[in-house]
Write a structure and sequence with these properties.
This protein is of the alpha/beta class and 472 residues long. It contains 17 helices and 22 strands. Helix 4 runs parallel beside helix 7 and helix 11 packs antiparallel against helix 12.
Length: 472
């Protein structure tokens, strides 16, 4: 962070500074009292499980130079109000306002801000861009999945004066969230990795999702660049008649001006051709990563990197945790894709397993959450995709998946190609059952929403000892 002073914080939020030395420097902003260091500004957030106001005293003891608190706490705090306080109506809103002010007034304007959104692939694309650039250009990317109304402004506030790039991830689960975060971010480059059936409970329809993602481009700075995966027809229709920035369309579809295609794929690698000229060997399974690689390629070219340098960097990229991470354990190829799931990413996983595995194909399907009224139908669709892909063994974990299987098995009672089926109540049950089902030569792909905890099953597979008989 570029140091600022407490009075600047108060001025940016249009409030007074209470009990503080106005010239004292702020070296970092945090909302986590456990991580407070000397020189930090602590912003107390009221959350579902914790109230940051309960940790103001602890934060000050750890060396915070001041705190941002809401009026309710300040009115009830008695002697504790002697702390240097910036008192605001809403601390979450204040964090966003501070991030927007920092981006506008403090951040080095030579720092290229790259904002990434999409139903799938946000974190992977963000990490790819950072990985490609970091050897040649000074900069940083948001940690973990800092993609909401707290993580985005914290990412902006982390930018240093020397940074030439900052990659920001923007997520959404309700209409208007992308636009609000994009307005704070004011990106030079906006990227939409994909549009798919995610967070339908809050977004309602695929058309709404496309509109929500496309709203990112309304806030790209004039003269900037917009990169969009145009394989989704709903998104393509929204990209016409935009002239304030350069549109770089990537995808498998003919509408793309930077087309990609998959030449070879296995459970460990995907060889991609981009624009009919550039061949990239990605050390991860799945043709869908081609569009993320194309976005990273476009950004790197924006910075003037040579194509061969970009290709070499992409070839050394490592998947983020829980996102198509592939490894072998006792002769079994395991794909840990457990970080999250929605129907479009489920279909991609099933198709990749179908075409890439050489031995018995095992698919571990956890529930997909936040799908609203469409949940039952979408879970049934995914079960039908498994049957059509001729997966040999299907393991379902969770109530929605189990219900979908029950309904589909009844509807397809005459289908001889149905896989062997195992139903597990939860991840703990799966951790006990699944390791004993696998044998050398199997390929197993695990995917489900984060709350299903399928990473625990992956851990159990890593710890398995001995190879027991497979399901007959």
């Amino acid at each position: 962070m570029i140091p600022i002073i407490l009075q600047q914080v108060a001025n940016a939020l249009s409030v007074d500074l209470e009990n503080g030395a106005s010239r004292i420097q702020v070296l970092r902003v945090t909302t986590d009292s456990r991580d407070v260091r000397p020189g930090d500004l602590f912003i107390a957030i009221r959350g579902e499980r914790f109230d940051g106001h309960e940790f103001v005293a602890n934060s000050m003891e750890r060396g915070a130079v001041g705190c941002v608190v809401d009026r309710q706490w300040h009115a009830e705090s008695d002697g504790r109000a002697a702390y240097p306080c910036v008192v605001v109506p809403d601390t979450i809103r204040a964090l966003g306002e501070l991030g927007a002010w920092y981006r506008r007034e403090v951040m080095n304007q030579r720092t290229v801000v790259i904002a990434v959104t999409g139903s799938n692939g946000k974190t992977t694309a963000k990490r790819m861009i950072d990985h490609v650039l970091e050897e040649s250009v000074v900069g940083r990317a948001s940690p973990k999945s800092f993609n909401n109304h707290i993580g985005v402004p914290l990412t902006l506030l982390s930018a240093e004066k020397s940074d030439r790039y900052l990659v920001v991830e923007i997520g959404t689960s309700a209409l208007g969230e992308v636009a609000a975060l994009a307005q704070i971010t004011s990106p030079d480059v906006g990227i939409i990795t994909s549009v798919g059936e995610a967070h339908l409970q809050g977004l309602g329809s695929l058309e709404n999702i496309a509109v929500e993602k496309a709203s990112l481009f309304d806030h790209v700075r004039p003269g900037g660049m917009a990169i969009a995966n145009v394989d989704c027809a709903e998104l393509r229709a929204l990209l016409e008649e935009r002239e304030s920035f350069k549109l770089f369309a990537v995808g498998f579809d003919q509408a793309a001006n930077f087309r990609v295609r998959c030449i070879r794929r296995s459970m460990r690698h995907s060889t991609i051709e981009m624009d009919g000229r550039f061949v990239v060997d990605l050390p991860m399974p799945g043709a869908h990563h081609a569009t993320n690689a194309a976005a990273a390629f476009a950004v790197a070219r924006w910075f003037g990197l040579d194509p061969e340098v970009i290709i070499d960097r992409l070839a050394t990229f490592e998947s983020p945790s829980g996102r198509t991470c592939t490894f072998e354990k006792q002769g079994v190829t395991i794909v840990d894709d457990t970080y999250n799931a929605n129907p479009s990413s489920m279909r991609t996983a099933i198709e990749t397993l179908r075409v890439s595995a050489t031995g018995r194909r095992v698919f571990v399907m956890g529930d997909m959450l936040e799908l609203g009224e469409a949940s039952e139908d979408l879970h049934r669709q995914i079960v039908r995709e498994v049957v059509k892909a001729e997966i040999e063994l299907l393991v379902v974990i969770g109530k929605a998946s189990a219900s979908a299987v029950e309904l589909e098995w009844a509807a397809q009672h005459n289908q001889p190609q149905k896989p062997k089926l195992v139903v597990c109540a939860d991840a703990e049950d799966g951790s006990r059952v699944i390791p004993s089902m696998l044998m050398p030569g199997d390929s197993v792909w695990l995917k489900g929403s984060r709350a299903m905890n399928l990473d625990r099953v992956v851990k159990a597979l890593c710890e398995r000892s001995g190879n027991k008989a497979a399901v007959a």
